Amino acid sequence: MKRRGFTLIELLMVISIIVLLIGLLLPALGKARQVARRTVCMSNLRQIGIGLQGYRDANGGMIPEVQTLPVDPFAPTIMDALEKHLTNRNVWHCPADRDELFADLGTSYEYFIGFYLVMIDLRQANDKKKKNELLRFFSRVPSLAFIMTDAESWHPGGPNGSARNALFLDGHADWFTTPTQVEPDVPDPPDPPES
């Protein structure tokens, strides 16, 4: 009995089918890896939120007064402020941080106060009393106030082109939607007198 082997055409067909299947699977694997990185990042932000809540409980509901992104080696950072409440330093590293921001600064995240519709302007951000008044006001609707985001746009695919995760005042983490700067309320001029 004679055994018949593969012909060159059959072998090429099998190889081309395998290459085609690999070509179809690689983008799906890349997307799964991207989703996994975002999930770990969200988990990190939630843990930071728990540490921040511990800080607020210990400090009368106030948030830390520290620099937004650690660029001054002598100024306190959010990592310093939450050191007692977060023992795992790895929570400050987003796995999608490939630019080595974490290696340089010790965090992949920016800390600042903002709200979905309003970013606090620099005068308000530097005025501790005004900041805490706004904080108390937005404590009534904490799901609108964010306090930390990814330092870079590492997670593409969010709503309206969002590419960052954000930690909100109520401790939940979700997509960060870029807020808009709004001008302070200016009263409308009075109506002209009727003649």
Polypeptide structure, described:
39% of the residues lie in helices and 10% in strands. The chain has a four-stranded antiparallel sheet, with helices on one face. With 195 residues, the protein is α+β, with helices and mostly antiparallel strands. The protein is elongated and about 100 Å long. The relative contact order is 0.13.
Topology:
Blueprint: H1 8-58, H2 78-81, H3 101-105, E1 109-115, H4 122-126, H5 128-138, E2 145-150, E3 165-168, E4 173-175
Antiparallel strand pairs: 1-2, 2-3, 3-4
Entry summary:
By secondary structure, this protein is α+β, with helices and mostly antiparallel strands.
- Our Rg estimate from Cα atoms comes to 25 Å
- The low-confidence parts are 115-124, 179-188
Span of the ends, CA to CA: 115 Å
How does the major sheet shape up? 4 strands, antiparallel
Number of strands: 4
Number of helices, counting only DSSP H or I runs of 4 residues or more: 5
Q: What is the SS-derived class?
A: alpha+beta
Written as H for each helix and E for each strand, in order along the chain, the element string is: HHHEHHEEE
As a percent range, the share of helical residues equals 25-40%
Shape: elongated
* Nearest-integer average pLDDT: 78
- Write out the strand line-up for the largest beta sheet, numbering strands in chain order: 1-2-3-4
Instruction: State which percent range the strand residues make up.
Output: 5-15%
